[in-house]
């Protein structure tokens, strides 16, 4: 089994009503890898700068995340600073310094090229496609995240890339923007014509929804009294989702539903503390307990 | 068993991207009664004007809704006109003519006074309280709906009334406004101190959530490709919820969860067509089938 993630490793400065951190390890690929690693080994492709320390590297390596694909480039690591509103539903970007990420050109080490499970975190669609080209055999499952920036500016490239993935995993605003449909069922049908056969819509405090040809599956967000920081929630969700599927090597309906739950579990833990803090201390037994709690949250008999 | 509803009977003019109706029977108590009547007999207390026709009356009477408590007053029936946005998520009120509703003073016929299940639809909290006073014995279950208007203008009266109800059934914005808490779990705790022991939060396209001392239960909205008209969805939900509970005469956790599902089922049917059109033709077998569909929508095994 091999799970590959390609995306950003970054340092984040974060502010929310619950506190503030000046510089903490972040980035979509980092959240994804840390979350997925609870289920399976992870191969990471990303670029960092000279400010990425031995300590940062050891944190990832000790968790069993393979860093052969982590490129070091002269300059500084991608830096993002943002501030969340009182209710955590809005955020303003205070700084985006791409640094070495501006010239990121993902190159897969030979042993990554037989990846069976691939997650293309939110980067330029052209780079996502180049990663798929480097994988020798069509993966068992390839999933892709994207954002409004790429939908607006590189729409044709995004559509070309979408032909080659199985799962599109985006939020509701992105779903509507990409499909030009407000209704999420119609949007899903539109997106299926672009390539993916499964649409996972991340809806923040409203949970997540999966649509495929069999129908719809909904999972609520886990009710938390004091979420601290939504950064990385979607990537942690994706890590739990793909990590679980890679661990069971199946993606029938029952497995996909369970993946939605494990995704929601990882997403919910991620927002409990700043940055990666909660995932750092998280135990597999806590993941299992929260998955059971999700069952309690949604279960009924007729 | 007796289920009593007190609230508005109205005529509505409705506009949505899917069409337009100039004058159709509506009002919170009407939607509630029609939805609840699929489960149990319903006693209706409301006021109508001289324009409320024999045909309108026969529609309700033939469904088995008891109209002994329907007062006729000189003047016209409450009239509301509204227009929904493209995505149905926003609405503008084009006209509100209270007419005979302005002097509504609910009086319960003697045989309604032993009501065991009571739903106080959205009217002035003082009137809601007067209804509870007229019920001889404390009902097995009393539920209340309200809105921003009463939260802002008659807050003290609303709080006084809340002491005497078991279930508060409002939307998320109202929950936050009433409790001064953004977080819905903290809001629920705040609201429990006001009297109710169960909070049902209606979240429109995001479904509904129930919080009580045992915890949280979430149910998604039913995915519809073409909802036509959200008018009355919340009252249809309340009708399905209370109707189901009154029919089983239990409100343990399993029954309350089922009530949430039947509420969601009735709400989802209600929005499929304009006004009461879909509920008019709805069959009990369709309700049961959609409840099973809700199970499919949310079920997973770990």
* Terminal CA distance of chain A: 40 Å
Strand segment count of chain A: 13
Q: How large is the share of residues in beta strands of chain A?
A: 15-25%
Class per helix and strand makeup of chain A: alpha/beta
Residue stretches of chain A low in confidence (pLDDT < 50, at least 5 long) are: none
Largest interface: A-B, 38 and 38 residues
Put simply, the count of helices of chain A is 11
Gyration radius of chain A (Cα, Å) is 18 Å
Output the strand order for the largest sheet of chain A. Answer: 5-4-1-8-9-10-11-12-13
User: Major beta sheet of chain A, specifics?
Assistant: 9 strands, mixed
Q: Mean pLDDT across all residues of chain A, rounded?
A: 97
Helix content of chain A: 25-40%
- Assembly of the depicted chains: homodimer
Q: How would you describe the shape of chain A?
A: globular
The helix/strand order of chain A is EEEHEHEEEEHEHHEHHEEEHHHH
How does the SSE layout of this entry go?
Two copies of one chain form a homodimer.
Chain A: E1 3-6, E2 10-16, E3 19-26, H1 28-36, E4 42-48, H2 54-62, E5 65-72, E6 79-84, E7 91-97, E8 117-120, H3 125-134, E9 141-144, H4 148-153, H5 155-162, E10 167-171, H6 172-179, H7 184-192, E11 198-202, E12 208-212, E13 215-219, H8 233-248, H9 253-270, H10 277-281, H11 284-298
Parallel strand pairs in A: 1-4, 1-8, 2-6, 4-5, 8-9, 9-10, 10-11
Antiparallel strand pairs in A: 2-3, 6-7, 11-12, 12-13
Helix pairs in contact in A: 1-8, 3-5, 6-7, 8-9, 9-11
